[in-house]
Please model this.
Amino acid sequence: MDFVFYLISAFAVGGALAAVLLKNLVHAALALTIAFFGLALLFLRLDAQFAGFAQILVYVGAVAILVVFAILLTKGSEVPKEGVFSKSWFAGLAISAGVFAVLAWAVLQAAPSLPNETAAPAVTVNDIGNALMSRYVLPLEIIAVLLTAALLGAVIVAMHEKAGPKQSAGAPGPSLLGTGERRNS
Amino acid sequence: MTPLAPYLIVAALIFAIGLAGALTRRNAIMVLIGIELMLNAANLNLIAFWRYSPHPELLSGMMFAIFSIAVAAAEAAVGLGLVISIYRHAKTTDVEEMNRMKG
Amino acid sequence: MTERLDQIFVVLKHWLLGYLPESWQTPVGVVISVVCIIGLYPALFAITTVLERKGVGRMQNRLGPNRVGPYGILQPMADGIKSLTKEDIVPTSADAVVHFLAPVILVVTVFMGFAVLPMGRNMVLVDMDAGLLFYFAMGASTELSVFMAGWSSRNKYSLLGAMRAVAQMISYEVALLLSSVVIVMMTGSLSLVKIVEAQNHYSYGFPHWFIFTPWGLAAFIMYAIAGTAETNRSPFDLPEGESELVAGYHTEYSGFKFALFFLGEYVAMFSISGLGSTLFLGGWMAPFSGLQFIPSWIWFFGKLFVSMCVFIWLRGTLPRLRQDQLMNFAWKFVLPMCLLNLFVAGLWRFMGEGWLRWLVCSAILILAYVSLGREGMRRQKFGPRSYRYAE
Model:
């Protein structure tokens, strides 16, 4: 029917599956970027150019890097001995299978009434900018405040100051690099 | 041109995969990865509904998706900061061992 | 005649496509353009390596390569053959798949950026509505390949280099984006073709490039700094600082994969320079209205050549920064200047024509530059070093 769509979907779903199933956390994070990329391609296929590129910029460029940094900072790149899945994995699997069954059933039930084909919307980046600055200016401002708060919060939470700075004789370099070095040696 | 339903099915599938990841993995970062996948699936739904809506020029779904991407970025930053903070405190990222309210 | 010469590549492509059936023309046209880009930039890369080695050699009071061919200009051929025939070593403990994918992804994403760069009048692969956003999305994807290279090598120098490179690229990417946003604000478009056209008028024979305004000049300086850091060039080349990290994230690469990294680095320099000249220096436009008879693509590649020379000159001149200096510079100087520049650009837009806006905007920027610079230049007192770990 629509070969390109199925190819991209298989790409995205495969990436998501690999992200959840792979044992090595760094591999999982890299598979996650494949899923993000596939989803961005789906956005492009839905004529949402701006959202697609924003997706790549934010997720592949920032979130994936953040995840990778967090994995290395928490020694996550070593596969734990006791296994990667929790003891109650069966319940989790059952719940998510149930959720998928319900969602798919609902979509298939509604499929005949869903719109099949519409003309491609003639929306330019200019229109998006105008909408952001007029109709959606309040959400935009709130997002700005939220992002600032999140930035400060993340820094405060992650950069926990000890009462007395711990002294250690390591190679010179800021904290981040010091960690990497110690991890590896 | 693909109809709307396959997009919704793909989104539901990715959502379920993300949910399964968040519920079954032990590592806190993997739980976050699962949540990111779920958010992304929701974004796909938003964009798909925008594309097939009778008035796409109103941009509602698109704006929703763009704001959701921004919120997800904030969520990832704070979530990973929390994971690092917990790791520093409890020396583990295993969510099954984080079962005490008292540090 | 000048018109013909200006459009020679466009006409040539259309002439070639004329022999094909209707339905084949679009895909084959895209393939031809892509092949041209993929062929052209590696050739420029080869020329630039000789230029760089000769130029830096002269700056360091030595001769540079002079054995292969007249004046050593065939040196890249020798280098290419050497890297192709060398053994491709993958460390036994390395993650073979990721180790293989990293250079491939780097080169692919770097080349993708050229899809939206206009290299002459009507010479752009796709005139995308969100071209600049596409460019930055592709630029952001290169960071991950750098991390993949460093992590998969299972070598501490590689990992350190990769972490440094990623931290540096993320920090300076913010500045890179913010300095370009000014241009988007003024032109009201993300399409690079439209951005060039917005600069395409002359008064008294001089062009209206964005660099000839206070905010444009400030943004250009910030862009140049951030671009140099994005491409890991000296003085921001500490991800591959050879005196401490062997070769950074590509320590464990040899043979053709190393050549791919080398190629990716230089092509990224071309791409950053191309985007910089498109945003601030009028892209393919002539610098004087009297020089418009020279074809547009000559101007584009001329500007590219000049900025490559500046890159080489910087490398021969400046010492390498320290990691904390690098980060302080990004977050305490470049970023505040970029944010202030956004404000100044808005002021410029709403103050109307006249000399007053020149005065006010320049005064704000110079004042901020001096005060921030003084703050940054102040001698810091270093106590005993403390290290913070995540554990």
